Amino acid sequence: MKLLITGGAGFIGSHVVRRFVLNYPQYLIYNLDNLTYAGNLENIRDIEDAANYKFIKGDIADEAFIRNLFQENQFDAIIHLAAESHVDRSITNPLEFVKTNVLGTANLLNASRMLWRDGNDENNKHRFYHISTDEVYGSLGSTGHFTETTPYDPRSPYSASKASSDHLVRAYYHTFKLPVVISNCSNNYGAYQFPEKLIPLMIHNIKNNKPLPVYGKGENVRDWLWVNDHAAAIDTIFHKGVIGETYNIGGNNEWKNIDLVMYLCRLMDQKLNREPGTSAKLITFVKDRAGHDLRYAIDSSKLKRELNWEPSITFETGLELTVDWYLNNQEWLDEVTSGNYLKYYQNQYMNR
Ligand code: NAD
Ligand code: TDX
Question: Is residue 222 in contact with ligand 2, taking CB distance under 6 Å?
């Protein structure tokens, strides 16, 4: 199996690539990533010399490049994670999101269709697995959960671009019989997450005694899932998911932002031997995010019922593992926050 994983130098993608490289030595894993600010080869340094792994630098939005890449490598299956992923950045630069998330996904779909159009799939091994988000369903009030049949109602340029890509994936299934699977996951946390997202940003700022910017009143609710559990769900869905189906993935673990930040402050006080209450003094309420979705909550009972997946650890355990990882990997955090890793790649991949 020649398996293409896109976005494998990013946060979730790096965990997925590692899992597949280590667990499936019989697969050839190709990691296609354009190494944007969010892509960091340090995230997968430990597996880069594996015999079944190859890194390719390239832009999914570049149509000719993608077409040639597919013709040259004849991929059997794809797990597509590459995306612009940060809501705040989508508010300042929406077009970048349209380009990568919409056009990029369309290019991959088209190239897959060209490659697999002869219907020569006697081993049923072709699969276009698209990784999406719960944000496509919009915003909930204080009750209810998103199911796989909740109508789409995206509200940020990020979620609208992800919703567009989901629609394209389903259109290719219905129109061209492309063998697709989609999953929509809730907020992830864990090692190697870029410190612009809530949890690593707060850990970093607490450690450095910097203000902790909580948007609005901190009343917004998110459902958090440990990234390794998301990678396990992706593994399950890739191998056992039914073509044409959608699966919601969630942690059944809702937190109001302010409660989560307070919890992190208490945990960090213990880890850093600070007086209880020290870190919470850094909390600063700031201007709310434009169009800030109030609440996300995922019903992942279909995935449990049909494919027998559920989270492996509690949030308390996962968060402590995550805090310990960031405290023990100061060098990674320094490189990322200083932007040094970007200079390194610009040199390494110049003129390729
Ligand atoms: P990330 O921003 O950490 O990583 C994205 C990766 O994609 C980076 O390595 C980047 O270099 C690469 N990339 C960006 N533009 C590219 C392009 N044009 N061509 C090739 N590569 C490109 O993102 P993440 O948080 O790991 O999210 C991965 C996927 O999972 C995304 O599709 C996202 O929408 C989805 N998702 C994320 C979460 C979450 O909580 N982070 C939750 C649900 C779904
Ligand atoms: O500094 C902050 N202060 C703050 O209050 C940041 C960065 C965020 N927040 C709030 C906004 C959200 O309510 O915390 C919550 C989480 O914010 P993010 O980490 O930016 O995540 P979110 O906007 O919920 O989107 C995430 O989950 C779904 C990912 O970034 C997406 O890629 C994924 O699809």
Answer: yes
Residue whose Cα lies nearest atom 17 of ligand 1: it is: 59
46 flagged as catalytic = no
The predicted pLDDT at position 117 comes to 81
Residue 53: is it exposed, middle or buried by C-beta count within 10 angstroms (0-12/13-18/19+)?
A: buried
Q: Can 137 be counted among the known catalytic residues?
A: no
Residue count of the chain, please give it.
Answer: 352
**Nearest Cα residue to atom 8 of ligand 2:** 198
pLDDT in tens, 47-75: 999 999 999 999 999 999 999 999 999 99
What domains can you pick out in the chain, each with its CATH number? 2-189+226-252+294-314 (3.40.50.720)
Q: Is 135 a catalytic residue?
A: yes
Express each pLDDT in 187-227 by its tens digit: 999 999 999 999 999 999 999 999 999 999 999 999 999 99
Indicate which residue of 33, 76, 84, 135 is catalytic: 135
